[in-house]
Design goal:
With 197 residues, this protein is mainly alpha-helical. The chain has one domain: Orthogonal Bundle (hpI Integrase, Chain A). It is built from nine helices and three strands. The chain has a three-stranded antiparallel sheet with strand order 1-2-3. A hairpin with a 4-residue loop joins strand 1 (61-62) and strand 2 (67-70).
Length: 197
């Protein structure tokens, strides 16, 4: 009988942003491009995939319920879902006057501005590449790294189940894959642990 070979799982090339990188990103975009800051905060806090994010319209947002509706027609898993809006996002949306635009407009049209025309599929990555060059970051830090960073930070703050639900993952093992990486924390409990041996 032939031996069963282990599947090799290669490490992700994309890396999450460190806390200092996130602060620098926030400071830079707060001064230079608040619409890109909104896109980054939405990726970091809502975990809506970039391909889905460009399809979100203003009337998909419920200010009262503090959530965004992601239709199964645009979602990767083909299921309708609501995701929570963090107060940081909502405050920025109000500051930008997002809700002064007609509700049927896409939040991120051409030029990252509300528009009746959907932004192209490379909208976020193109803007991110310019930003990454300005900040002098490695290509391993991608726009999607914001989702990795957000899942890590939410799981560490509120628990993996909360992060799983916000990310709309069907299984916690999917969420757990986002928690691997070179900046995974060293737990004080392990340092202080006194075993039997």
């Amino acid at each position: 009988m032939d031996p069963i070979k282990n599947l090799t799982v290669s490490a992700k090339k994309r890396q999450p942003l460190t806390k200092s990188m996130l602060r620098r990103l926030n400071d830079y975009l707060s001064e230079h491009d608040k619409w890109m800051l909104l896109a980054c905060r939405m990726e970091y806090y809502t975990f809506i995939r970039p391909g889905e994010l460009r399809h979100i319209r203003i009337n998909d947002i419920s200010v009262k319920d503090m959530q965004i509706f992601v239709s199964g027609e645009i979602s990767k898993n083909k299921r309708d879902a609501n995701v929570a809006i963090n107060r940081e996002i909502l405050t920025l949306m109000l500051d930008l006057g997002l809700f002064d635009y007609p509700g049927g407009m896409y939040i991120f049209g051409p030029g990252l501005r509300p528009s009746a025309t959907i932004g192209d599929k490379n909208l976020f990555s193109r803007e991110w590449c310019k930003l990454r060059s300005t900040l002098g970051w490695s290509p391993c830090y991608q726009f999607y790294s914001l989702k990795d960073s957000g899942i890590r930070d939410l799981a560490n703050s509120a628990g993996i189940v909360v992060a799983r639900d916000q990310a709309r993952h069907t299984d916690i093992s999917t969420t757990n894959r986002y928690l691997k990486g070179r900046d995974q924390p060293v737990h004080e409990e392990v340092i202080a642990f006194r075993g039997v041996l």
